[in-house]
Amino acid sequence: MIGNVTAMSTTGYSAITLSRKVVLLTRNHRDLGKVPGLLIENWTA
Predict the structure, then answer these.
(1) Which residues contact 18 (CB under 8 A, 6 or more apart)?
(2) Cβ neighbours of residue 7 under 8 Å, at least 6 residues apart?
(3) What residue ranges do the domains of the chain occupy?
């Protein structure tokens, strides 16, 4: 069940970010890096 919630959250964040043409700040490069056209940055130290 937890895996499905994560996938749904990832899909939602990706869709919103792509539709607004902005950069998504996240530490989850493993999953979100697979989304074509999605711009992601990691701002953690």
Answers:
(1) 35, 37, 38
(2) 31
(3) 2-41
For the chain, 45 residues long, give each residue's pLDDT as a single digit of tens: 455 556 778 889 999 999 999 999 999 888 888 899 999 999 886
Q: Residue 27, exposed/middle/buried by CB under 10 A (0-12, 13-18, 19+)?
A: exposed
**CB within 8 Å of 41: residues ≥ 6 apart:** 23, 24, 25, 26
Q: Residue 6 is encoded by which pair of tokens?
A: 């994560």
Provide the whole-model pTM. 0.75
In whole angstroms, what separates CA 36 from the centre of its chain? Answer: 11
